[in-house]
Amino acid sequence: MDAADSPTVADREIVLVRVFDAPRDLVWAAWSEAEHLKHWWGPNGFSNTFHQFDFRAGGDWRFIMHGPDGTDFKNHNRFVEIRKPDLIVIDHIVEPKFRITATFEDIGGKTKLTFRQVFESAETFERVKPFAVPGSEQTLDRLGQYVAKMAH
Questions:
Q1: Which of 115, 125, 142, 149 has an alpha carbon 20 to 30 Å from 18's alpha carbon atom?
Q2: pLDDT tens digits along 14-24
């Protein structure tokens, strides 16, 4: 992992930047199409069952993340803003509450993804930081592996 892959952590925010050796349209598809997203979303060892995926501003995304130990985590997200092909903003509207802002930048046929996760409070972030930071890094690692398969 080089310095660009290292997370920036403020009092209530995680910022990750990754460059994927894949065109922006492909990385966008991995984020915006449920049949792709369900394969990589979440930390290592997690799987997903999607119940609703309404990819539009104001649309709901309801799913269960299945942990490697068998624990189920119910999730309810709402898409706040979508600007194809460069911006997706998602609110996680159940505890812990946070906003994800993902930006997609074309850099000569590769894609620079900036992933920002801002929690509702510093207290919430302190509580979840021990698993949220590595979990976000693992999620983007899984995205990279998935996009590499899509590209070939």
A1: 125
A2: 999 999 999 99
